[in-house]
Amino acid sequence: MKLATFFDYLSLVWKQIVARRRRSWLTLLGIVIGITAIISLMLIGGGLENAINGQLDSLGGDVLFISPKGNALTVGVLAEGVPLTEDDQEEVDKVRGIEQTAGMVYTTARIEFNDIVRYFFVVGLTDDPEARKLIGEGNNLNIGEGRAMEKGDQKKAVVGIDYTDFNLFEQVAEIGDKILIQDNEFKIVGIWERIGSSPDDRSIYIPLETYFEVFGNEGELGIIMAEVEPGVDVVVAKERVEDALRDYRGVEEGKEDFNIQTPEQLAASFAAVLGIVAAVLVGIAAISLIVGGIGILNTMFTAVLQRTREIGLLKALGARRKQILLLFLLESSLYGFVGGLIGAGIGIGFAKFVEWSFENFVGPNLFIVQVDYSFVLIVLIGSAIYGGLCGFVPAQRAAKADAVTSLRYE
Amino acid sequence: MAAKSIVYDLTDIRRNFELGEMTIKVLQGISLKIKSGEFVVITGESGSGKSTLMNLLGMLDVASSGVLEFDNVNVVGLSDDELSDIRGKKIGFIFQQFHLLGTLTALENVALPLMFQGVHEEKRWARAKKVLTKVGLGDRMHHKPNELSGGQQQRVAIARALVNDPEVILADEPTGNLDSKTSSEVMGIIRQLHKEGSTIILITHDEHLVKFGSKHIVLKDGRVV
Ligand SMILES: Nc1ncnc2c1ncn2[C@@H]1O[C@H](COP(=O)(O)OP(=O)(O)O)[C@@H](O)[C@H]1O
Ligand SMILES: [Mg+2]
Questions:
Q1: Alpha-carbon distance A396 to nearest alpha carbon in chain B (angstroms)
Q2: How do the domains of chain A map onto residue ranges?
Q3: Do B116 and A5 touch (CB under 8 A)?
Q4: B37-61+79-224 falls under which CATH superfamily?
Q5: Could you give the ipTM of this predicted complex?
Q6: Running DSSP on this structure, what letter comes out for residue B46?
Q7: Residue-wise pLDDT tens digits, A46-58
Q8: N or C: which end of chain A has fewer CB within 10 A?
Q9: pTM, 2 dp
Q10: What confidence tens digit (pLDDT) does each residue in B68-111 have?
């Protein structure tokens, strides 16, 4: 068939659909929801995968993350677990196959600057540059301005890039400025490059020793990172660290009050969450598409019945069976296509909204939605074909209709 | 077209309808010839089988028995699509109920039959405009049917019947839904077409229209009287 002919038919069918706008919208609904689910699934799923991979890349593959676990015996109370300490860190450091370790601790604190008080994270960081590199790799810490912490630094602070944003304290922080943490005066000696997540970029980093002076809980760490020696299997190293900490902390196997995770495990747990989200969306998509398909089938059966006389007329005017079949197939395909188009629009819009939310509430450049338009096109074509398939039986009924009976139909 | 060639040649055409156990014999052996350029008026009481005969002549329906030759070809036994092709190329229908598509403009309605013949777009519009002008609706081409009077709608339908330059025009009570003034307008157009050489078969129960025809056939109980 010639393309021009195709467009002739399309325009005829389009007028039919527009003429029955009310019913058409209802018909589209299921397809719209289904395609919205599919498109947002692909875009958000892709964005999350990128975000997770990006985070994992910055972690490096050979670092163990050791953190305290909530105490499972204290039923009903959301208890802090037994904290990890610098002593634990030393113990881990001694484990065979561990290259070096770094400890880190953080809490929210009262920050005062330019006579304005706000509450952000304060992070206690080691003043050992080697160990800090380990944390730096994990957290993307690179000095942007000034200098990093040095041995012997006391009330010195390195701040996140957001402190150079006027909006944070209605004044741009500069190297040498004084800033109050829990009423203790600190001097800003450095500013990190953008880390990429809003909480991190609003954090203040101070030496561990000073951290304990300000916040107490001497020696307690939030997280210990342990770098595995090159050539040592990460899983083997993990088991050894587990053994060492169990012995040192006096807990039985299976009742550990600490957690050790490898980057692979972190990835796996992210992927598991992603999988659940995907399964739910696929479920929604499948159900909506089935409902939408039945909607198209129903609409097309009704259309064929309502337009019986019109079908008879088309036959009288010389339309062949295939031509009538095509007209009705085009109509149901168009429902699929238009439903897909609207669904794709909403899906892309929704994914962009999620991206925007991430940027504003979590951090920039973390979650980026990349719209693959060739994929969108394939979905649209698929949706049109699906619509056509759903309308096939009614269309065939129309094509085979008897001219006289149809024309006389009341 | 050779003058006075035979367009229709019917021999003992019968049409029965099966209704459950019953067989309704609507046409009971019709034999007639219609020549090119004739204006045949078919009258008869309601239920005498006029429309049934018209449907057979228009190849919308197939006879139960008998021979129906159109252009010297027996059409009984042709396939659905073959009959569609003949209708699309050689027959123009005018119905009592106009049967215009409400979503299309007058021009689009008139051009519609040419679409099924695969006629190129520009040619379609040109041809449709020409016949619409001919029926006096050159200034109403872009109106939808519901923006036109009954008489105007029937004129659009006449234009549509003319658009494929048919060998024969079949009109089943074309003035049945019109008042006397518009109905004489419509008859005026049909008579004009006859004068210009078209073969016309008109069904009516209005005896006043018989005088316009060149041949009169009366049906009674499925037979030619
Ligand atoms: N498809 C059909 N099934 C059963 N009876 C039919 C059918 N078509 C026509 N008839 C019957 O045939 C008779 C003639 O109908 P028709 O040709 O429409 O008459 P007219 O046009 O002369 O008024 C009527 O009694 C009608 O009920
Ligand atoms: Mg009748």
A1: 14
A2: 3-56+268-408, 62-261
A3: no
A4: P-loop containing nucleotide triphosphate hydrolases (3.40.50.300)
A5: 0.95
A6: T
A7: 887 777 776 666 6
A8: C
A9: 0.75
A10: 999 999 998 899 999 999 999 999 999 999 999 999 999 999 99
